[in-house]
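Usage example:
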Amino acid sequence: MSKHNLKKIGPCTYLLPQEGGMKVPGLIIASEQLLEEIDIEKPLEQVRNMAFLPGIVGYSIAMPDIHWGYGFPIGGVAAMDAETGVISPGGVGYDINCGVRLAIVPEPFSAITAHAKQELIQRVFQFVPSGVGRGHRSGQILSEGDYNQLLKIGARWSVERGFGFPSDLDSTESNGRIEGADPKAISSEAKLRGRDQLGSIGSGNHFVEIGEVENIYLPTIAESWGVKQGQTYVLIHSGSRGFGHQVCQDALNSFVRQGYAEGLPDKQLVAAPIHSPAGQQYFSTMAAAANFAFNNR
Amino acid sequence: MNNQRLFFGVPVEAPWPQELPSGRILDEEVRHMTVAFLGNGNFTHLHSQLSTIPLPPFKIGFAAIADSLVFLPPQTPRVVAASVQWLNGFDTVLEWQHLLAQWLLSLGYPLDKRPFFPHITLARAPFDPQPWKEAFHPLPFFAKAIHLYESLDNLQYQPIWSHPLIPPFEELDHTADIAFLIRGASMKEVHLHAQIALSFQHAALIRYFARTLCNNLDEIIIDLNRMITEIDSIEGSPFKAVSFHGQVKQTAEHMLTWEMIIDV
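Running the assembly step on the lines above writes:
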């Protein structure tokens, strides 16, 4: 697979023709310059592989952040037919519902003294575990009842315990809850990996950032979100931590063992029909991991 | 070529700590496992026969664990060394060491009669054993080559004959995560070398190495993830999962290779 296979069909839009076992063509959204600058061969192979998934609709798509992943390329998008399509744990990814939350603080950034900023940073490090495998090591472990409840109801669990405002749910995608979560379907390994990690950051590109809104580029949207110039913000990038990783791994292992990878060019793409027992089992655990992530940030 | 001090040794690659306790510490590139110690003497005949050295049956450098410290000889220690825990292939290494010893004997160079005790030499006297005992943690390692070394002054070792070995793994550039090309002569070796590659990045994984034999790549990946799940649950892990990406391929030299990608 090479970029020479690509056919330009519009501005920053390239078609990867359908061939072999591909069920749809590929579509790459990228500028010519981007295609020149990145090592495109392996990600293109993964766009092609993604097109083998049963039930894929329209195109196997790669966004401008396309680069080499595993199974799907990073930046890969595949829409599935909701009735006849498949669900792919590798496509959803290991860190289920990894995302960014923006919290606006009424206090202007300029009103926070240097001393208070120093204190703030120290407190964040004190109360928010970060780094490889880090969770709350001081015995702050979720009770089984709380664990199951937050997996089921999502971010409302945090709001009910005073860690947020009811209005936060209105500005959270899916109102901070994916329906259909089944805590009973979660493995003991997944629960163990996540039990002390709620309210933690993790490693890699995850972070907590406290800063000032310096420039507003889209005033109408900023106003509707209540964002004002000079305001203090808190930005949190995290996901479902070890819990989500184990949910994904459990499903991959199960799908591979059940033979769902047959016919696919890469086993990381392994996928089960959405309405099959395996597909439904994964969906219920994936929803629980997504709800963990909503609470985590 | 008169009055040389020679030995056959295997230089090893390991994720050595940045700092080691006091002593006359060998440079990383010359830390080695002695395979056959010839001592001092005139080796003119040996030099003329180097083309007939019995080569090992393995092309890939063997991998194992440096699992504990030893001070040699025990009564009056002059050497700090790491003893070796073999996970696979010791019989093959031992057989080749015997062949090498017989070949040397046939040339008139009998070896010491003590049994072969594989260890990695780290430092020489003077040293204080206690800080070494406190600082040491088990480490993975692999053999990089086979050398006939000449031992020079001041912990200098000069290879005067070499036979290269293929590394059991090498890190690949991956834009988002970590990737390795894993090599092995068998699926058992692919499994072992995948674990060794991961433990080069995080040596604590050694304690979670496989307890079962895997027959195919799916089982290997599932076992590697079992290992990651265990360590992440107990003490945290920089790795989150080994993906099912890729297949085992056979090279023209009958070597198995697998591109292992790890989510971090």
